[in-house]
UniProtKB/TrEMBL annotation:
Residues 10-136 form the VOC domain. This is VOC family protein. Pfam families: Glyoxalase. It comes from Cryobacterium serini. It comes from the Bacteria. InterPro entries: Glyas_Bleomycin-R_OHBP_Dase, Glyas_Fos-R_dOase_dom, VOC_core. Transmembrane segments: none annotated.
Length: 155
């Protein structure tokens, strides 16, 4: 896997852009309740506003339909609608889930241990997003030693 940042073709950042009808409520939820620090903010003509929040390391998870159904089932007990879901790794999934519910999110799936050894909850959050809050319960090296896990390079 090429992770050289001096490669001119390398992607340096993944940024997910969402439109929020209630901009202030969405910023308060993701910045203040979830704890994503504001990296930059801009205002423009016609009351145009944007807040860029730092979510740490980003990954793009590509799942086939069977995997999406399985994750929906594990996290919520039922199939969820199509679309993009954001997942945030945290160190205290139960505490963050409680805090986000108090800040206006609706819990779809309470925190539960998954077959892949993480503690996940699913919430409906501001800006029309469904989010997963997850806490890893074992390290990546431990996980990749179990059957069914690994990377394309390790298969």
């Amino acid at each position: 896997m090429n992770t050289h940042t001096n490669d001119p073709a390398a992607v340096l950042q993944l940024r997910v852009i969402v439109e929020a009808d209630d901009f202030d409520a969405a910023v308060a939820f993701y910045r203040d309740a979830l704890g994503l620090p504001e990296q930059a903010a801009f205002e423009g003509d016609g009351n145009a506003r944007v807040s860029i929040l730092d979510a740490g390391r980003a990954t793009l998870e590509i799942s086939n339909p069977a995997q999406k159904r399985m994750i929906d089932e594990v996290e919520t007990g039922e199939r969820q609608g199509p679309g993009i879901r954001l997942a945030f790794e945290v160190s205290d999934a139960r505490g963050v889930t409680t805090r986000l519910e108090a800040a206006g999110a609706s819990i779809i799936g309470e925190p539960r241990e998954t077959p892949w050894k993480s503690l996940n909850s699913r919430l409906d959050a501001p800006a029309g997003l469904q989010i997963t809050v997850f806490q890893e319960l074992e390290s990546v090296p431990e996980r990749t030693q179990r059957a069914g896990f690994g990377t394309a390079d390790s298969r």
